Input
Amino acid sequence: MIETTDNKAAPPVPQATDTAEPARVERTPKMTARNVHVFYGEKEALKGVGIDIHEDRVTAFIGPSGCGKSTFLRCLNRMNDTIPSARVTGDIELDGQNINSAAMDVVQLRARVGMVFQKPNPFPKSIYENVAYGPRIHGLAAGKTEMDAIVEKSLKRAGLWEEVKERLQESGTALSGGQQQRLCIARAIAVDPEVILMDEPCSALDPIATAKIEELIHELRGRYAIAIVTHNMQQAARVSQRTAFFHLGEVIEYGKTSEIFTNPREQRTQDYITGRYG
Amino acid sequence: MATTSGHTIKAFDEDLDRLRALISQMGGLAEHAIRESMRCLIQRDVDGAQKIVENDKKLDALELETERRAIQLIALRAPMADDLRDVVAAMKISSVVERIGDYAKNIAKRVPLLENAGNIEPLSLLPEMARIATEMVHDVLTAFVERDAEAAVRVRERDRAVDDFYNSIFRTLLTFMMENPNNIGQSTHLLFIAKNIERVGDHATNIAEMVYYAATGQHLADRPRGEDMLKG
Amino acid sequence: MNKAAATSSRWTDGSMTRMVAKRYAAERRFKLFGLAAVGLSVAFLAFLLINMGARGLGGFTQSQIRLDVDFARSDLMLDPAALKGPQAEQVVSGAGLDGVLETIAVATYGEGAGDLFGGASTRALGEQLIADPTLLTRRTQLWLPLSSKADVAVKRDGERALEKMVAAADAKGAIRTRFNPGFLTNSDATDSSAVGVWGALKGSFLTIMVTMLLAFPIGVLSALYLEEFAPRNRWTDIIEVSINNLAAVPSIIFGLLGLAVFLNLMHLPRSAPLVGGLTLALMTMPVIVIAGRNAIKSVPPSIRDAALGVGASKMQVVFHHVLPLALPGVLTGTIIGMARALGETAPLLMIGMRAFIASPPQGITDPSSVLPVQIFLWSDEVDRGFVEKTSAAIIVLLLFMLVMNGLAIYLRNRFERRW
Output
């Protein structure tokens, strides 16, 4: 009945450690962007954006609709070139080389910086052909055996091999949505890129397919630098190590994912991630 | 960092407000229990003390309710940043306030045992000590509801007074016991009661640190303490 | 409970039921109109086909008459041995078979029976003699084709006297009507019973080949360039408008163009499938370009993005991905253009493909005719026999178009891919 008192020893405050990545020396980033402006005609979509993309790290871009995150992603592999009214200024470098200079071949750039799109868009060809097309046009395989090996390796890395190895000649469009997206990832991997850009890759998929793709991203992280645009903040939190919050064409905050989602520095960032935005 | 506007989903705001209201309610019950236990002690009100012991169940129930609501909020709303810190703080604070309530219950349980005590001098110090401690609890819970980090820091300062009170009572009672071994029984109870009130003060500072972290995302540095009895 | 009552009354009361009934009635009316429209079109088509069929089927048949002959007793001076040699045809044509035939006819059927036989009959007799020279030595029965006048009489459209003669012969069972393969293998002739569509058919085929070999590649490549590579400025807008207008220009203008450029300026052989093909190619190309551009526009940009994302160059995107997916639409436009070109008469008349060509063309530079022009020319003839031949030729043209369209549709379906 008489209670003993407990000791007041307050445990020492543990140091904040980012358990998702081991301590490492900061290497030079794979891609850097400084002061990037993008104009669609008169409208300025990006106003001086600067971000680093490091290898074996996933960088997430979050922000409300129309804030410029997809536009910026498309700058990284010069997909904005296909839009006639788009004008890109600023300095974007891949391994120190300016990608917008005349010396950079845009076709080679797009092989080194691959892209996966929001809606899965496999070619209307066989599964094998889908994956083999990239290596073929870039001359990465000397013969059929080598090509077979590349296709198998890419499908394995994309986590699709077991499901399709018996039916490589079937049409790529006959697969389910999640499988199609993994096929698109395999297709991007097949040309052995250095960076993979993903523009809302899971927004058209159900939760199970989404989880498989997120796990795949985690596995790919060791080999490629990955940048992902997502509407889903929880996904950005799950998948990335660095997060950049875009708002009205500017990067408001860019830092460690764990910090952005527990203790962001900027009020606007906090408002967005807690759902007070708008 | 104060929040500037409510959530787009109003139900989220309501859930958070309900959680805070629960904490407030728990705080009110705990404060009342401490004050009542002091009153019963001074006035030798055994029946009143019995009521305090029974009412502690309400506090326990509220703690369970708070935990339940906090878990539900995390699952359903996926709170981030300051909201997440608030919810976790609410869970931790509720268990601390429940401890405070237990201390009040503890004090109330000793009331019947002190019925026959004369007016021992230290007895008169205790209500003042308890008042400070109760005020600390009240202020720190207000700081939590209002997300006021500064107020939380100020509460922490006052614990020094409580600690000093305790040290003084400790020495007095020790002297009292050494003077007259017949007093040892009563004095020991009073000592435990004083210890409980000192613990209430400490818990209030714990809550203050939780409130500060919830509001700012930073941890408070260790505060300067009162004289450490164990040193020399 | 009140709510349930309120809902039921709102949705089931008088005004609502009337609205529903009106809606159903409107839908029924619409369906009836649609059915009526379709029925009308089908009726017109059926009318055309039945009419043509009725009038033209006779053109595929030929009436023959039985003749009992004893060449040994006739005036025919023909050595059976000579018929076996290489000079057989020459010998036969110089033997005066028509006179012999007339004599025998008059002997069998009476005065004026010579009209029963014509040049075709003589030729047929000659062929039969060459085939079997022993006929000359014995008494035999021969089936010979009637003259065109008599043929018409059999079909109850000719002179009275002939009709009577024919009826009499028919009563004796001496008339039979057979399928005339000559209609499909002969070329144009003056004698309607000997006439055939083969020459015109071959001419049409050659012309269409030239048209397609020119219009298809040029049209498709133009569409690809305009849609994928050309910048969007005022000049390309002007080009687009011009092509759209070209597709609507009356075809005879292209005939004038062909006359001025290909014949007068470039001195290409007149009336040849080469010139006809060139002219029709000018006419068909805009249709293919327009259909091609629409087909290319409808290829979803996601496919292009996907190919670009893998590092394909613009050319690779266009030729490996866009063109294969646009091919069904392009082929549809080609079918439409080709169907139009097959049936064109006016521009070909202007460039001179209207002459009387008695033998089928050997190559694209030989003078030839095309089927629609042939039909036009025959419809102008005075000889009654040509009436049914015209309709028969129309049937052949329709079948020809059906076959070509069928081929094109088959090709389109083969390239159709779901994406």
Observations:
- Helices of chain B lie at 10-43, 46-77, 81-110, 121-146, 149-179, 184-216.
